[in-house]
Each structure stands twice: as structure tokens, then as C-alpha cells.
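re: ur question from yesterday

yeah so i grabbed the chain u mentioned. its 399 aa long if i counted rite. heres the sequnce exactly as i have it in my notes:
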Amino acid sequence: MKVLCLGGAGRICREAVLDLVQYSSFEKITVADFNEEEGRKIVEWLNDPRVDFQKVDVRDREATVAQMKGYDIVMDGTTIKLNGLSTACIAEAGCHGINLNGFGEEEATDQTFRENGKTCVPGFGMTPGVTQMMAMHAASQLDSIESIRVSHGAFRPIAFSKSIAETTSYEYDPDLPGRVVYEDGEFVQVPPFARPREIQLPEPYGTTVQYIIPHAETRTLSKALAHKGVQLIEVRGTWPKKNMQLVRALYDWGILRNESIQVGGTEIGIMDCVSEYLFHSKEGTETELYGYALHVEVIGMKEGKRLQHTLTHTHPDSDGSVPGWEGLRAYTRNVGIPMAVATEIIARGEVKHIGVITPEEAFSPAVIFAELEKRQIFIHEQIEELAGEPTMTESTVRA
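ran it thru and got these C-alpha cells back, copy pasting raw so excuse formatting
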């Protein structure tokens, strides 16, 4: 099997490539990136005969399709803005595909993937991705679903890469149409900073105030669990406190609208200017606490009892006590590893659906959890009966 790792020189995707080197059965692993200098550094760092480099520019569709042909799967670590272009290339090249973001442009290529008998799974990292697996695991134990609340804390600098800075401004864009909640069979649009809710994340992260964000889980879970009568789905997220303070100020002052201004005779978007500053500043590229925390709450009925399943996840600390998880890597490995796990599963032919499909259609939660556990990423589940006297059970989810 052969895999092309698009955007493989990025800070997150390189961790997915490392995971493929350490765990997968691929015979050829190609780091493909526009940044040749950085890409070749990754090849040298990985130091494995299966790994090589190709310079790829997804804006050149014809050349990119030619480069992709012959690979079994393309693991796509490019940015949100490029995912529409990259997925179109993957479909035309006749490869399987997977990416981290899953914001919707991929669906336009569904027919091409079907015609080629291939699978594309948009949006499989920690969130979206593992969060859907957690929700589906809980839902499988319930007869009916009342509500699903997906939450996460991404503890990383606001702009350690340009793609991360882009994600930050994207999720709180005042004009973004996809910031929705699912209520009583309908998708309801909400503004930035809507529906604040305190979420108790595992230590060392603690209690955080989180707001509705535009993530794929709202739509994919509503589809997957329609047969269980799900009434409410909300997806929330947060970054470090200082990040959230800054984003709130940018929103309150209208800077997130990214209106054009003139600077020294040059026209530039005001938010683009701020992003560029953050990317080159100490404040934008450092934070006090690194890592990732998921929190998924599912409430439903089982044999006449109203139950609440709360699932969380833990990983090695970022303090250097576990090699490979130091500092920022405690964040980037959490995001990259699930994509690598899913890439291997698709390439082995274990996903039977073709076309552009959701994580819920593609993967078994138990299989994903078992693979994550091998990498020191653990899923925990707590079950509480809400009617009558509270009774609680707690466990680590295992395959």
C-alpha cells in the first residue's frame, strides 16, 4: 500500500506521518508539500526508507492529480481553504481520501469517488473525528437519545501556524453560515459566542466556559442518530483563556469581519494583518498549557431509565515526562494521530461504503479507541442515572 501525505510538512500532519511510520503497514509513505525545504527536513527526521518527498501545489490541479495517481490513499493535512481543491484532486486521481477539517466542500466530489469505487472521509482528527466515535459509543447503549453535547478544549498557541490562525478566525467569523445547533429536527443558526456553558474538562485543564462553534459533528450526528429520535445537538469549543479573550475583543471591535484597510498605500484585510502579527509574535506562538481535552455528554433512555453518559479523554502530559509529548506536541499529536489511524483502516479496505461519507458511517468506535490506546490516548466513560437517586459508574473504554 502507498499513501501520499498532503501538507505533510505541517506541524499537525507531520505527527500523522510519524504515526504511519511507527504503526502502519504502508510500503511507501510520501510527504507531499509546497514547502520543499520543510518537507525534506521531515523526511530526514523520520529516517525511514519507505519515506520520500514530492513538491505539490494543489492549485495546479492537473499536475497534482498526476502526482496522486498510483497511491492507495491521500491523507490530507491541508488548510480549510484548500480542502475543496485538494479533495477534487484526490477524487479525480482515483484514490481514497481523508482530511482533518470536514467543513463541507468535499461533498461536491461524492459522485466522482463513487464512480471510482473509492471512499472519502472528511473531518477525522480529535474533533471532528474521535468526538463522533465517543457519541456513537454512548448512543449504542441507549434506546433513545434526548441530547448530545460535544465539547473540546484545544490548548495551543493562537497562531503557531498560519493554518491554525485561519481556523481561529474562521470559527468566529460573524458571517459564517454553518454555526448551527440541531433542535427538534431543525438546524438553527447562532452568532459567535452563543450559548455559553461551563464544561468540566479532565485535569490539568479544569472548568472552562465554552461557546457554540461550527463543527461537522452537529450535522453528522443528527444524520447518524435520527433513528433514535435525537432532539438536541450542540458542539462547543475553547482555546486557552488568553486566546479566548483576544478573539472576543476582535469580535466586539468588528475586526473578525476582516474589512479592507489601506496601510502605506497597500490594501489589506484588517484580520489578515492581525493574523500576520500573531504568527510572528511571541504572544501568538506560545502558551502556558499544551494539550487537548474532549468532553462528550449524551443523555437518553435505556429500559425506562434516563441516563447520562459522559465521555472524556486523556493523554500524556506536556511537561516532558513522556518523550514525544513535550510542549506543543501534546496538542499536535492528539490531532494528527487519529487521522493516521483512520488512514490505515481505509487503505486496508475495512471501510465498505464508497463516496464521501461521515466518520459515523466509516468506523467502529471500539476499533478507533483500541488503536488510540496503543498510542497512550485513553477514552473514559462515566454513566449516571438522572432519575431518582444518582448512581454513577466510571471506566476506561476498551475494545
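noticed a couple things. The two ends are 26 Å apart (CA to CA). also The chain has a mean pLDDT of 94.
anyway ttyl
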